[in-house]
Amino acid sequence: MGMADEFKKGIFYSAIGKYSNVIIQLLVTAVLSRILTPAEYGIVAVVNVFLIFFQMLADFGIGPAIIQNKTLSKQEINSIFGFSLYLALFLGIVFVFLGYPISAFYNNEVYKPISMVLAICVFFYGILVVPQSMLLREKKFSTVNIVTVMANIASGVVSIVLAVNGFSYYSLIISNTVKAALLFIIFYFKTNLTFRLKIDKKPLEKIFSFSKNQFLFNFINYFSRNLDSMLIGRYFSASALAFYDKAYLLSLYPNQILTNVISPVIQPIMSDYETNLEKIKSVYLKITTILATIGLPLSVFLFFNSNDIVLFLFGNQWGGSVATFQTLAVSVWIQMILSSTGSIFQSANRTDLLLLSGILSAIVTVSAILSGIAAGRIEYVALMVIMAFAVNFIQTNYLLMYRLFNSNFIEFGKALVKPVIMAIIQCAFFLVIPRFPFSSFVNLMINGIAFVILFILGLILTGQMKLLKEVIKKK
User: Which DSSP category does 438 fall into?
Assistant: First the structure.
């Protein structure tokens, strides 16, 4: 099977999984947002920051390293699996006691029992890393995505049932644990891995160089991406954090729908072309063109329709998220393109450049977040965050185009010219059209239809329709 066919197959199953999961998440969130209060969501948002951190520690860069290194034998992977078991158990025990400093930092005792429940979730996410990476390494995209959809459905049902029965924020926490457990159990039996209680250092040494840089990048990226939530929860309020978190997560949905369909497929396939930088560059520029073609006009639509989107999805009690979401909507297209860059660095086996990009991004993002926190409003935090995204967009693509591909920004800029024209068309329309006095749903339907018509018109006028047809048919 050629690269184009592998991409088609991978993206097809990835799309089924991602789109199904986004629909499930939106439906579940729409229901829960009308049952749980912003304050309850804020409590979960605080603890989720630490859960993500421990998930990152549990991965330790092992997942991408297993995918990249084609010389690892089944016995060596079993040994790495045994190491991940010990690591997951250790992190789970640590998380049990993490609730005490979290409670002290946020002045809320509720985090103590929450951390005990989530410790189980940490353990399952830890031992999930190797089985999931093995399936991706073998390009079994259908298995990974179908199982993930099943786990998300089960998790959504559990969360709604618990919320209706008065479990408050525990409905979100327990459902997340159920999801992690289901994913591990099914992936484990699909891979036939076995635990090796005696750890062999050689397989770990074999992947250390790659996983070290990957882990350090994840570590640095974690703090730069989650510092805003940490500080908002500490210095503002749980409700303010909930409004910010809801807006931020909503701004990530285009990534889940589009970029996250492509990104999981890139490294498993492009790692076969590790030494062919021209091929990797060609794929990256084509991905950038496609994402910009969709992302730039979409950012315009989300910006002008932010109020109706938030109120329709979550209800009137989430009006405090509108201004923040409108600000973050400007950066949606940037986030989409940036999300694909990590897989490109990995495919070229240049996690050293990925780490450098992460360090520079962290410096810029942390500085921006601190400035926003000092200004005292979540809207200012969002504004500073999108400015950080813009700077990081430039430096990351500098490392890709100049340091990795020995190219320049002119070649990269050509991929953005036509998408910018399409965005200008959308912007001109929504600036002129008046706001309709109807319900949020009706307004979205009218503006959504207009967006689609203008998008198709933009594709025809710029010639991007031809590109999309070529991508679907051939490469």
Answer: S
**The predicted structure's pLDDT at residue 420:** 94
Does residue 265 share a domain with residue 184? no
The tokens for 301 are: 């639509």
Domain that holds residue 390: 236-475
In 271-317, at which residue ranges do the beta strands (DSSP E only) sit? none
As a whole number of angstroms, the distance between CA 17 and CA 384 comes to 33
* Neighbour tally for 202: CB within 10 Å: 8
| Position 218 in a domain | no
Q: What's the angle, vertex CA 436, arms to CA 435 and CA 438, rounded to 5?
A: 140
pLDDT number for residue 271: 60
329 and 452, same domain (yes or no): yes
How far is Cα 277 from Cα 405, in angstroms, rounded to an integer? 6
CA distance linking residue 334 with residue 295, whole number of Å: 8
Same-domain pairing of 32 and 159: yes
Total number of domains in the chain:
2
DSSP secondary-structure letter at 408? -
Q: Are 42 and 242 in contact (CB under 8 A)?
A: yes
Together in a domain, 51 and 153:
yes
Distance CA 313, CA 27 (A): 9
Helices and strands per DSSP (H, E), number in the chain: 19, 0
Q: What is the pLDDT of residues 329-348, one digit of tens each?
A: 999 999 989 888 888 887 78
CB-CB contact of 170 with 50 (8 Å): no
In a domain, 226, yes or no: no
Say which DSSP state 433 is in: S
228 is a domain residue: no
Global pTM? 0.70
pLDDT above 60 for 281: yes
Instruction: Dump the DSSP string for 171-184.
Output: HHHHHHHHHHHHHH
Amino acid at 81: F
pLDDT value at 17 more than 70: no
CA 261 to CA 138: how far, in whole Å?
17
**Residue 177 counted as domain residue:** yes
Q: Is the pLDDT of residue 262 over 70?
A: no
The C-alpha atoms of residue 120 and residue 143 are separated, in whole angstroms, by 24
Nearest-angstrom CA–CA distance, 380 and 12: 39
